[in-house]
Specification:
The complex is a heterodimer of chains A (477) and B (402). In chain A, a hairpin with a 4-residue loop joins strand 5 and strand 6. The two termini of chain A are 31 Å apart. The relative contact order of chain A is 0.12. Chain A is built from 18 helices and 18 strands. Chain A has a domain of 96 residues: Uridine Diphospho-n-acetylenolpyruvylglucosamine Reductase, domain 2. In chain A, 37% of the residues lie in helices and 19% in strands. Chain B has a 5-stranded antiparallel beta sheet. In chain B, strand 15 and strand 16 form a beta hairpin. Classes of the chains: A alpha+beta (477), B alpha+beta (402). Chain A: It comes from Rhizobium glycinendophyticum. Chain A: This is FAD-binding protein.
């Protein structure tokens, strides 16, 4: 296995005191909420970024905010690193621990505390899954908008940590746009409430700063999120194009015409083949690029919007247009897209990149991506949110071949640099984690980065919260 | 007034002031002068010399402009492409009694959002990237120009709504959206505040995409649309989009609202005027400096706050954001303690004193007091961006010394 990404060296003093620390932690959480046996720690060694793993010092799975606060207060007093964790679905290594760290898992905090339809809010504990919120309010005609592909498993706490998005964010925004408040445990165990059921902040927008901070500013134990009334109907349509360029310019023209579909998803030929083989969604196999465009509203509204979109697609020589005739068919179209990562995992190991680019650069970046991967002798499948320029090249490789793995990692880094050079950024929704940490200097100047790190220090002076992540290991303070 | 024409000039000015620890009053076009606590600074630094749209590709729905660019220039460029700022920024001139030119940087520095905020997000939700000079004179960039970006800490959100106390914005990049093709407004007449709040909540739970929900009690009704609204209090619900779609949704919404009271409908032109008047708080643009509060609470609780206050103080109020934004004008005394106690006892929120005479402004903290840990954290953050405390000292706090 390659180890191109360094971790901070574990603190010898912390390692040496392990038995003592475990004994102390045992006092702070109820029986069974401290994981200390070697075998039981294995599942916490890594997250969705499986190329790296570290065994943590211990794992605590608190049930209450008070327990989280007690653990934080303790770890702060002794300078023990803490790595917060939701369901462990991070794809950038955001929840990978280190040997001297206590993993603070929020997965046991799964209660929906309050649903308030008059104010259209839900208050939930951090370990509630993304989909559980929509499930809890769906029969009453509401939903929670951000929908990461891992929504069945991933937790709202993790979503806040990563400011997660998803396919429908083109219209509804990402987590930060749908978050009203959090209960946050600061590094020293102080509990603060940021926001609430009201809009906007009474001072600096600390809520906005915490969202997407990758567990570096505090531990979110509860969240109040915005609920939305479900649209009357939703209809995805498949469009097949002869080239990625044609699909890309179709997207630009749809948006330029003033139409904002609720989602525009893009797949290239390899992705189409992989997804079709798995989901049997009826995707056309004779096209180079596929768009799934979803519109919402009443039947009449959807008809009108789709008519305009189809007309625009025709000007780009669209080869296949498939409007679905039933809910089953619509579900199947989305099944293919949502299972893209899983389906790819069946045919090869892969790393999933997550750069964003301005829409005008999409076609060019796709072309150069293919050239980069080709140069390394690897294969790539592209599936992504075209409406907001969030690319997900899946680089296929063999995890058991160290050379192959190193090549995949190097190709991935080149692609991310390409995104930045095209005016985009290193990550649109997966986070920096450990994966992109050392590329931060490609997107930010030393001054930009130092300013971010200084603000981070205002929350956590000793850098004990998720310390090996997000920021380059040197130049901290 | 210092009006640098380039980022480098701005940076030099700020570094020079930092070196001698001399406070600077930061402003854009000055149309929001009077916001916050009084600032005591020897010099004023304005972004009004940093102008011009630097990048705009309508198909990407993103615009970049220098901070001092007039909002009118931005809106004209967007309108030419059928686009606009979905968060409906408020023009504060009428209510604040100011003149001058609102700037795009000033707009984001105060996170100014209008009626659509409760569905479309605030100004800060649309701000994608910034360039700013920090309190030591360093030029910093944050964010980017793409819709989705989770690279590092979101300093963009932090600076939005920081009233020039964390940095001097030099350039902003923000998301723009197609302007709705048409607008219609459903009016429900005769509802008391509490019933109006229930009606608005009911409308928001329907799949008709209401994009404005306000309640205008009888006391303010005459100040809208040249006094042509029907008699009594009026609750207004806005629908926007393609003409055919708005018509269908309006019928559906009307049918659902008839149970609450008599319903009428406004067309596109009148709707546009009405919502601009709501946005700019027309009833209290009264050329006085009577205390004006802007209160944000859970939508279902706002009317309870107003009802409680009416028993003890001279207060006039109307509601936007489904009842969650309360514009409140006091007869004489700001009644800050009663007001803030009321907000806390009704589940929380915040009150900002937007306008008052100098005497009241000196005596009353403009922003909602924060819990001690949050206040300390905010001060530490300010110390990381403006270590010498030279930007708008005291504006957001009650003059914390360092």
């Amino acid at each position: 296995m390659t180890e191109a990404i360094a971790f901070l060296p574990p603190r010898a003093d912390v390692l040496a005191r392990r038995a003592e620390i475990l004994a102390d932690l045992r006092e702070l959480v109820p029986p069974g909420r401290l994981v200390e046996e070697n075998n039981a720690l294995v599942p916490f060694e890594t997250d969705g970024f499986i190329a790296y793993r570290r065994r943590p010092l211990a794992v605590v799975l608190p049930e209450t905010t008070a327990q989280v606060a007690a653990v934080m207060k303790y770890c702060h007093r002794y300078g023990i690193p803490v790595v917060p964790r939701g369901a462990g679905t991070s794809l950038s290594g955001g929840a990978i621990p280190q040997e001297d760290a206590v993993v603070l898992g929020l997965s046991a905090m799964t209660r929906i505390l309050d649903v308030d339809y008059a104010n259209r809010t839900a208050t939930v504990q951090a370990g509630v899954t993304n989909l559980a919120i929509s499930d809890a309010v769906g029969s009453d005609g509401f939903f929670y908008a951000p929908d990461p592909s891992s929504q069945l498993a991933c937790t709202i706490g993790g979503n806040i940590g990563m400011n997660s998005g998803g396919a429908h964010c083109l219209k509804y925004g990402v987590t930060t746009n749908n978050l009203l408040g959090v209960k946050l445990v600061l590094v020293d165990g102080t509990v603060v409430d940021l926001g609430g059921q009201h809009l906007d902040s009474e001072g600096y927008d600390l809520l906005g700063l915490v969202c997407g901070s990758e567990g570096q500013l505090g531990i979110v134990t509860e969240a109040t999120v915005r609920l939305l009334a479900k649209p009357e109907g939703a209809r995805p349509v498949l469009f097949g194009f002869e080239s990625a360029e044609a699909a890309g310019s179709c997207v630009a023209d749809v948006i330029g015409a003033g139409i904002i579909p609720v989602a525009i998803e893009f797949m290239d030929k390899p992705a189409i083949q992989i997804c079709e083989a798995f989901a049997k969604a009826g995707y056309p196999l004779d096209v180079e690029a596929l768009l799934i465009v979803e519109v919402e509203g009443s039947e009449a509204e959807m008809d009108a919007m789709l008519a305009s979109i189809v007309a625009i697609a025709k000007t780009h020589g669209v080869k296949t247009v498939r409007e679905c005739q039933s809910a089953t068919e619509a579900a199947l179209i989305w099944k293919g897209r949502k299972s893209a990562f899983g389906a790819t995992g069946r045919i090869a190991d892969y790393i999933c990149m997550d750069g964003t680019v301005p829409l005008s650069q999409l076609a060019d970046v796709l072309k150069k991506t293919a050239e980069i991967v080709d140069r390394y002798g690897l294969r790539v499948a592209n599936v992504f949110h075209a409406g907001d320029g969030n690319m997900h090249p899946l680089i296929l490789y063999n995890i058991n071949d160290p050379q192959d793995a190193a090549k995949a990692e190097a190709a991935g880094m080149e692609i991310l640099k390409l995104c930045v050079d095209a005016g985009g950024c290193l990550t649109g929704e997966h986070g920096v984690g450990i994966e992109k940490r050392d590329l931060m200097r490609h997107q930010f100047s030393d001054i930009d980065l130092a300013q971010q790190m200084a603000v981070r220090s205002a929350f956590d002076e000793g850098w004990i919260l998720n310390p090996s992540k997000v920021f380059p290991l040197e130049g901290r303070g | 007034m210092l009006t640098p024409a380039t980022e480098t000039e701005a940076s030099d000015i700020i570094r020079a002031h930092a070196e001698i620890r001399t406070p600077i009053h930061i402003r854009g076009g000055g149309t929001r002068a009077g916001f916050g606590n009084l600032v005591n600074a020897a010099a004023t630094l304005s972004s009004s010399g940093l102008t011009g749209i630097t990048a705009y590709n309508p198909a990407e729905m993103v615009m970049t402009a220098r901070a001092g660019t007039p909002v009118a220039e931005i809106e004209a460029a967007l309108a030419a492409n059928g686009q606009g700022m979905a968060f409906e920024p408020m023009d504060h001139r009428a209510v604040m009694g100011t003149t001058g030119t609102p700037t795009i940087g000033g707009l984001f520095a105060v996170n100014s959002s209008g009626p659509r905020r409760f569905t479309a997000g605030a100004a800060r939700d649309h701000l994608l990237g910034i360039r700013f000079v920090n309190g030591t004179g360093e030029l910093v960039k944050a964010g980017g120009r793409v819709m989705k970006n989770v690279t590092g800490l979101d300093l963009v959100k932090l600076l939005a709504g920081s009233y020039g106390t964390l940095g001097f914005l030099t350039e902003v990049t923000f998301k723009v959206l197609p302007t709705p093709k048409t607008t219609a407004t459903i009016l429900i007449s005769g509802l008391e505040d509490e019933t109006a709040v229930r009606a608005m909540a009911a409308a928001m739970s329907m799949s008709v995409e209401v994009s404005g929900a306000a309640h205008l009690p009888e006391s303010v009704r005459g100040r809208f649309l040249g006094s042509t609204l029907p008699e009594g209090p009026v609750t207004v619900l806005r629908l926007e989009g393609l003409a055919a779609s708005v018509a269908v949704r309006a019928d559906k919404l009307e049918a659902a609202m008839t149970g609450f009271g008599p319903v009428t409908r406004l067309g596109a032109d009148e709707s546009e005027v009405l919502w601009r008047e709501i946005r700019d708080v027309a009833p209290y643009a009264d050329s006085t400096d009577r205390p004006l509060w802007r209160v944000s609470m859970a939508p279902s609780r706002g009317h309870e706050l107003v009802a409680g206050l009416r028993l003890r103080a001279g207060v006039d109020a109307f509601y936007d954001w489904q009842g969650g934004l309360i514009w409140m004008r006091m007869e004489a005394d700001p009644e800050a303690d009663i007001l803030r106690h009321g907000i806390r006892s009704l589940g929380g929120g915040h009150a900002t004193l937007l306008r008052a005479n100098p005497e009241i402004r000196t005596a009353t903290p403009a922003f909602e007091p924060q819990s001690r840990p949050v206040a300390l954290l905010s001060e530490r953050i300010r110390g990381k961006l403006d270590p010498h405390g030279i930007f708008n000292p005291g504006l957001m706090t009650s003059g914390v010394s360092r």
